[in-house]
Specification:
2 copies of one chain form a homodimer. By secondary structure, chain A is α+β, with helices and mostly antiparallel strands. In chain A, strands 2-1-3-4 form a 4-stranded mixed sheet, covered by helices on one side.
């Protein structure tokens, strides 16, 4: 398999982490998104018409975009995704929460800050995003106060999806000091076998 | 089942449409989000710690949030979700595209405009959201130029999820005139049996 990716992307990291845990070999193809390398006519035609990475090239005619869709595809039938209908629904609930409430408010400020692309309009959006990012972290904290992992007390793709940008939230200006259960969960995830780091 | 919802929500509409097509009776409980009715201590404790609707109350101890997770849960084992692994992955790809690239750029301007909550910061964000919203509509157009529906040439939950805010995109300032394949698809979806309207 070939993973179309960009350095330091949490969305790409999710996929690399699961591929590694599943012992699936893959080749990583890196693009510089600041230079528009995922918006070229060739990329849009062949890799992803939505101009984003990660994209997993599963076969020459089957390229799958959207990091959490890729996690689900890879995890189906493995211990990283439950068989139980309710647990599966709860997993999807966390995956959509991640892309709608967590990623835009935690990953986006991190990107603006670390890539030095803060302009006045983005500066003006930071307080609102920070507030909503802390609210998302609070939702995680509340769940993790009574549970070791996000779904069914067992490590799975919901943990992988939420860990990706939470563990580097500090780079977006977030202080995780007020979330003790969340910090214990971060350590628990990092201590799992075959864990890899973001890069 | 009980659907916790708010008037004119496209996310709630997706669930009502699928429940109706599946002939599943349900009760609709409406909240006024402008008055903060989904942010009360009671709502956060009992319905959704993330303070959002829709939430489907499947059993007294099983409340499921995130519209597209609800669609998946309800559609499993029905003609609205394929059995094939690749088609299922493509369905999820569209569902995550909807929540990440489509909804924030098309539904959010519609909400700001129709609820009359445009402030200067939101006004300043409108051009960027409009540009990204048109890009998302362009991705849909490109797929629909050669296919009657989004996945496997058959109506399913990807169509329901994307139809919800696309068919009312005009209320967010979008002109669908430049997307002929998309407009034919909107008509095709609306002509399906047991179709219901947003309200």
């Amino acid at each position: 398999m070939r993973l179309h990716d960009t350095p330091q992307s949490g969305n790409g990291y999710k996929v690399r982490l699961l591929l590694t845990r599943l012992n699936i070999p893959f080749e990583r193809v890196l693009y510089d998104i600041d230079k528009g390398e995922t918006r070229t006519a060739e990329f849009l035609a062949r890799v992803n018409p939505n101009g984003r990475v990660p994209v997993l090239e599963i076969a020459p005619d089957f390229l799958l975009a959207e990091s959490n869709a890729i996690l689900w595809y890879l995890a189906e039938g493995t211990p990283f995704l439950a068989d139980d209908r309710r647990r599966r629904a709860e997993t999807l609930q966390w995956l959509f929460f991640e892309q709608y409430s967590h990623e835009p408010n935690i990953a986006t400020p991190r990107y603006w800050i670390t890539h030095r692309v803060l302009d006045p309009l983005r500066e003006a959006q930071l307080p609102g995003k920070t507030e909503q990012g802390y609210a998302a972290l609070g939702v995680l904290e509340r769940r993790l106060e009574g549970h070791p992992f996000l779904v069914g007390d067992r490590y799975g793709i919901a943990d992988i999806a939420l860990y990706a940008y939470t563990h580097v939230a500090g780079e977006g200006g977030f202080d995780l000091g007020r979330f003790p259960a969340l910090r214990r969960w971060l350590a628990r995830v990092a201590a799992e076998p075959r864990h890899v780091v973001i890069e």
